[in-house]
Amino acid sequence: MMISRILQKNSINRLTINTINSIKQSSSSSYHTTSKDEVVSMSNIKRNDEFSTLTNQDIKHFKDILGGDDSSRMITDKDELEGFNQDWMKKYKGNSSLVLKPKTTDQVSKILSYCNQKKLAIVPQGGNTGLVGGSVPLFDEIILSLTNMNQIESFDDVTGVVTCQSGCVLETLESYLNAKGFTVPLDLGAKGSCHIGGNAATNAGGIRLLRYGSMHSNVLGIEAVLADGTIMDCNSTLRKDNTGYDLKHLFIGSEGTLGVITKISIITPPKPTSVNVALLACNDFNQIKQILIKAKKQLGDILSAFEFMDRPCIDYVLDHQSTAKEPFDKKSPFYVLIETSGFHEQHDAEKLNAFLENIMSEDLVLDGSLATDTKNISQFWKLRETITESLGKAGAVYKYDLSLPIDTFYSIVEVMREKLKDKAVVTGFGHVGDGNLHLNISTPKQKYSKEFLSNIEPFVYEYTSQQKGSISAEHGIGYMKTGQLHFSKSPASIQLMKLIKNSMDPNVL
Ligand code: MLT
Ligand code: ZN
């Protein structure tokens, strides 16, 4: 998962806090085509010349810190750098000539302290699975990869608290915990690559937030390194600790702008032993709303996910995933995926069946299917979890991650369809149980274009703001929304964020 950059001096440079200090700029997103020579557009952000340029002397210093310059510790090879310079959607791209891969907090501290003194720009990077350009350089920033900081340090099977380094891959952590009968309270499509530190840095949401809450609810402790190299040990494993400000929350969701997360302690729940997934087809969004109300009441504590996708999403998945199957004989405008997880097979099945009977008797579904075994459950999840990848394969896709009130939740999709007509395919899916819509505007076989973007922005942000929604429910601000924060935050909130940033990283002006 992406971690944003440590900000140093001047808001014009990527190293300064891209979410907060750049808000006065009228910058648009930086889009790139898949070809590195064909940059479609670049925002008006220019490299700040107050930042230094990397020298051989600097590289030698980093080599001394890391104990060598083999590719497991640092990367300078142009081809190898490519994957670190670009995000996986191939939308944002920088031109860094150095990746540093520390193994310890002490090494991170020494690197940041040196960069701070030398005014060398840095961008921290986790699994680089972010969607808003927060984990890649824009210019020549040094990339600080947390990949080598992947050790799981301890697990307490009474409290369920696990402590690990921030570069631990989410799926690896999940396997480790599963073997002990526990589970990470977070699950998302990018689990095979994203890092738990990036998940915390971006306050990643995902499909189980409905059941377990956000990273703010589950992270008990964080160790982070500040821009000047200070190691902030807030890595408590206590459930309760009311001694002053709870500083770890500053690092959760601040996208790496206040420090680099190096270690994390999370409270993990026991892994449910009985899991069921129902896939339902609906005719309109109002039916989904009614089903959600009933699911919350009738399934209660066993409800673990409530996701929706519209028909175009299913079409993209069927077009681009060879093993995905059309779920029902007849196509429908909407689909809902409901997961229950519990510990009493019979009790859970009875509850779910009663709920399904109820919604069918009230004509809220057109079709339905229940999966109780691992193979069928994963087939259903595949339809939901491969939407992003499938849309990405089709061509340029403009992605918006909005929190919206349930009564007007889907209307932005219809409004955008009306606005764009046949210029694009507008789809909606996401975590409807959490009020989070993923609005995706796909332009098959086309490249990202600034001209096309003007059909969408700022309209989509203005619309969201009028609905009192959020322009980022879970993906974060990154580079994509640096100029848009004011659509969701008051001037006073933004001012306070700047004060916090400047007090933790005084090199930023
Ligand atoms: C998801 O829910 O699948 C992710 O947030 C990715 C996306 O929005 O494309
Ligand atoms: Zn999502």
Automatic annotation (TrEMBL):
Per the UniProt entry, what species is this protein from, by scientific name? Cavenderia fasciculata (Slime mold)
A Gene Ontology CC term for this entry? mitochondrion
Q: Keyword Plastid: yes or no?
A: no
Q: Which residues form the FAD-binding PCMH-type domain?
A: 92-271
Record-given protein name? Actin interacting protein
Which keywords accompany this UniProt record? FAD, Flavoprotein, Oxidoreductase
Q: Which InterPro entries match?
A: FAD-bd_oxidored_4_C, FAD-bd_PCMH, FAD-bd_PCMH-like_sf, FAD-bd_PCMH_sub1, FAD-bd_PCMH_sub2, FAD-linked_Oxase-like_C, FAD-oxidored/transferase_4, Oxid_FAD_bind_N
| Domain of life where this protein originates | Eukaryota
Q: Which cofactor does it need?
A: FAD
Q: Kindly indicate where the leader peptide sits in this chain.
A: none
* SUPFAM superfamilies on file: FAD-binding/transporter-associated domain-like, FAD-linked oxidases, C-terminal domain
Q: Which Gene3D superfamilies match?
A: 3.30.465.10, 3.30.70.2190, 3.30.70.2740, Uridine Diphospho-n-acetylenolpyruvylglucosamine Reductase, domain 2, Vanillyl-alcohol Oxidase, Chain A, domain 4
Q: What protein family is recorded?
A: Belongs to the FAD-binding oxidoreductase/transferase type 4 family.
Q: Which GO terms describe its molecular function?
A: FAD binding; oxidoreductase activity
Q: Does the keyword Metal-binding apply?
A: no
One short Pfam family name for this protein?
FAD-oxidase_C
